[in-house]
Amino acid sequence: MESSQNTAGTPGSGGGNGMIVPPHSNDASPVDSTAVDDSKHNLNQVTNSIQKTLGILHQLYLTVFSFNVASQAPLLQRQNNMVLELDNMSKLAEKCNIQVPMEVLNLIDEGKNPDEFTRDVLNNCIAKNQITKVKTDAFKVFRKSLLEELDQAFPDEVEAYREIRASSSSEANCFGQVQSMQWRFQG
C-alpha cells in the first residue's frame, strides 16, 4: 500500500509540535473548512511517509548488520525504496505549511526533548496570566475605591455616570446579541 493511502485513523498522525497554517486566500471570507481538511490530510500523508521511512531505515539497519554476499540484492532494493520514499516525502511536504519555532529545532539539535519548549512556553504563559490577573484585580479595586470617593465628593455626577454606564452597557449587550444572531443566520 502506498504511503499516500490509508491516512485516516493512523495513530500519532496529525499532531506534533508544528502548527498547521491554512493557505491564504485573496478574498476577505473566513478560512474554508476544506482548506483546513486538506492541510490535515497533507500532514497525515507526510506523517505516514515518515513512518514508512523509519520502517525502511530499520530494514536497512538489519540488512547492513547481517550483511553477506546474498543480501546485496535486498540491500540495493531497500536503498532504492529509501530514495523513493524520501522523494515522495519531499513532494508531500511541499504541500504542507508547518511552522516550527527555532527554539524547538535548537533543542532537538542539542539532543533535548522538544516538549521542554512546550512546557517552558506554557509556564511563561501561566506566569504572565497571573501577573495580568493581579493587575486587573488591582484596577478593579482602584476603580471601586475611586467611585466610592467620587460618590462622597460628587454624588450627583457619579449617579449620572452610573446611569450613562448602565444605558451604554445595555446597548452594547443588545448590539452583541444582534451580531450573534446575524452570525448564526449567515453560518
UniProtKB/TrEMBL annotation:
The keyword Cytoplasm does not apply. One of its GO terms (cellular component) is mediator complex. One of its GO terms (biological process) is positive regulation of transcription by RNA polymerase II. Signal peptide: none annotated. It is found in: Nucleus. Its main location: nucleus. One of its GO terms (molecular function) is transcription coregulator activity. InterPro entries: Mediator_Med10 (IPR019145). Residues 1-38 are annotated as: Disordered. Keywords: Activator, Nucleus, Transcription, Transcription regulation. Belongs to the Mediator complex subunit 10 family. Component of the Mediator complex, a coactivator involved in the regulated transcription of nearly all RNA polymerase II-dependent genes. Mediator functions as a bridge to convey information from gene-specific regulatory proteins to the basal RNA polymerase II transcription machinery. Mediator is recruited to promoters by direct interactions with regulatory proteins and serves as a scaffold for the assembly of a functional preinitiation complex with RNA polymerase II and the general transcription factors. Component of the Mediator complex. This is Mediator of RNA polymerase II transcription subunit 10. It comes from Oldenlandia corymbosa var. corymbosa.
